[in-house]
Design a protein that fits this description.
alpha+beta, Beta-Lactamase, 4 domains, 5-stranded antiparallel β-sheet, 14 helices, rod-shaped
């Protein structure tokens, strides 16, 4: 059956086959085009293409054009629900303009379908939401575990390293920040382990050295607790064992051996002085520990601006002291035994040298002169050895009032012959009204004689030797090098003896040892001058015996200046007990 709708105004006809048969266009009048549409098929196609779950009904002029439900036409009304074939539908109206005639399109959707669609949508949404939550939770757990697991592992490794297990490694391969932290921790652990191995090796080497050396080593910290003691120190101090480590320093004074108690107490005081001193000083002292003589070297351990402890080295010098004492006794005895025959020999030589005593040829006179010179050298050598032996044995000074001018004159008389032979110009510059010295006259003569004779011997022919003596009350007048030495006396008043020469001078390399025993500086005149190398050492010891100071300044090739500063001890008590005679 065909449903026809003719639009008279526009002259076209819409024909639809309700039963679904094929349609064909027919010309009803000239110029008119007829279109036949299978509206049901088109609506079905639209529904299929759009995947609609709703039904549709096309109404024109109150007559249904087509309906997917095959029901009676629905009239457009505010009512939105309709019962069709026992089912409730919801209608949605849409007005379409087809030419000049409106066509109503009703889109019908059953409530059951709507409910099913909504339910299926909710179910799908809930399922998708649940799956999403599960997926997100799984991802969160995976991400969290991937971050926290390495961190927890790093924490365990760090705790093991802190406990001392340096072999524990993180072994992280990640390229993120956690992996970088793990690799840094492994590198730090490896470095620390290497440093500890090196430290252990160094400590072992030091322990081996400390246990193998013959000298005792003792170290204390700032709290005066013993932190190190080697077997040699244990033996020297008479300790039972090395259990004194970490013990207070005062425990050393409680030695079970009473014969070394005083020496140990002196050692403790020396260590405490090294710890409490204001400046960094190094102390050396001899201590008697029972039957042993020990040389003690102490020095503070300074870290920054504070002292962290002290180190003491104990050197057993008992054999050296005994050997030195035996040597001194032998030299004293031998020198004394040599002195008597040398005195007789010198007397006989002088006797033969007198004119008229013996008829000697020229050659015999020359030989006799050589014998005299060598005898004089031997006498000087013996005198030097005897003087050094007396000083080593603790010689006492026999002091009395001595005139400085008189002492200078006697010394110059003794070198007059030698100075004249070398055509030296000897100058004597003495300040007026010099105070007398309370000193051993023989010692003063020996000091000045050694200095003046050295100046004469080491000054070339035609040179100059000057001897200055002046009272000193202003320390600013001291020679530069002497002014740097602290003056140990309360009053600044003193006498200065200065011996200047234009000789060969002293090499700079030899100046530090010039006061050493048996040392002679090498120069152009050293072979010709001869000597024992004891003169300056004896002079230094004698000056120290009288509380004075000695020093020098020398330039090689230009000459030297030696000076001696002696205190003027003119106190009222001495002047009353021993009045100064007219000098």
């Amino acid at each position: 059956v065909l449903l026809r709708a003719r639009d008279e105004q526009h002259g076209w006809l819409l024909v639809a086959r309700v039963a679904g048969n094929d349609g064909a266009g027919q010309a009803d009048s000239p110029g008119t085009v007829y279109t036949v549409l299978n509206i049901a098929e088109e609506l079905g196609r639209i529904r299929r293409d759009l995947q609609l779950s709703a039904d549709m009904q096309l109404v024109s002029g109150g007559a249904p054009v087509v309906s997917t439900l095959g029901a009676a036409p629905l009239l457009k009304s505010p009512k939105m629900q309709f019962a069709i074939n026992g089912m409730t539908y919801r209608a949605a109206w849409h007005t379409l303009q087809l030419g000049a005639r409106p066509i109503e399109l009703a889109v019908l959707r059953s409530e059951a379908t709507i409910d099913a669609t909504v339910s299926s949508g909710l179910r799908a949404m809930l399922i998708s939401s649940g799956l999403t939550l599960v997926l997100l939770a799984s991802c969160g757990v995976w991400v969290a575990s991937s971050i926290t697991r390495p961190i927890l592992h790093l924490g365990r490794v760090a705790r093991e390293v802190a406990a001392g297990n340096l072999s524990s490694k993180a072994g992280l391969r990640q390229r993120d920040e956690v992996g970088q932290l793990g690799r840094a921790l492994d590198q730090a652990t490896t470095t620390i382990s290497s440093l500890l191995d090196q430290q252990a090796q160094i400590t072992g080497e030091r322990q081996a050295i400390l246990h193998s050396i013959a000298d005792g080593v003792l170290a204390v910290d700032r709290d005066q607790r013993i932190v190190l003691v080697n077997p040699a120190a244990v033996a020297l101090l008479g300790l039972a064992d090395q259990a004194v480590q970490r013990q207070p320093l005062a425990e050393l004074a409680r030695s079970p051996d009473p014969t070394i108690g005083a020496g140990v107490q002196l050692l403790v005081e020396l260590i405490q002085a090294s710890l409490d001193g204001g400046a960094e000083t190094h102390g050396e002292q001899r201590v008697v520990l029972g039957q042993r003589v020990v040389r003690v070297h102490s020095a503070p351990v300074v870290g920054g601006a504070q002292r962290n402890g002290a180190v003491v080295v104990l050197q057993d010098v008992t054999r050296a002291v005994e050997a030195d004492r035996a040597k001194s006794e032998f030299i004293a005895v031998a020198s004394h035994e040599l002195r008597t025959p040398l005195t007789g020999l010198k007397g006989f030589v002088d006797l033969f040298a007198l004119d008229g005593v013996a008829k000697l040829t020229r050659m015999q006179h020359e030989c006799l002169g050589a014998i005299r010179r060598q005898t004089d050298n031997l006498v000087l050598l013996v005198n030097d050895l005897l003087e050094m032996a007396r000083l080593e044995q603790g010689a006492r000074a026999e002091r009395k009032w001595v005139s400085p001018a008189q002492a200078i004159d006697e010394v110059l008389v003794g070198v007059q012959v030698q100075a004249s032979a070398k055509r030296l110009r000897v100058e004597r510059v003495i300040s007026p009204e010099l105070p007398p010295l309370w000193i051993d006259e023989r010692h003063l003569h020996r000091i000045l004689s050694n200095l003046v004779s050295n100046a004469v011997k080491y000054t070339p022919d035609g040179g100059r030797v000057a001897l200055h003596v002046y009272a000193l009350e202003d320390p600013a007048r001291l020679p530069a090098a002497l002014a740097q030495q602290p003056w140990p006396h309360h009053g600044p008043e003193s006498l200065v003896f200065a011996v200047e020469d234009t000789g060969v001078g002293i090499r700079s390399d030899d100046q530090d040892r010039i006061f050493s025993r048996f040392f002679r500086s090498a120069n152009a005149l050293s072979v010709e001058a001869g000597g024992t190398g004891l003169g300056l050492a004896i002079s230094q010891a004698l000056v120290a015996l009288h509380g004075g100071q000695i020093g020098f300044h020398s330039v090689e090739g230009r000459g030297s200046c030696f000076w001696v500063r002696l205190p003027v001890q003119l106190t009222a008590a001495i002047a009353t007990a021993l009045p100064v005679e007219e000098l």
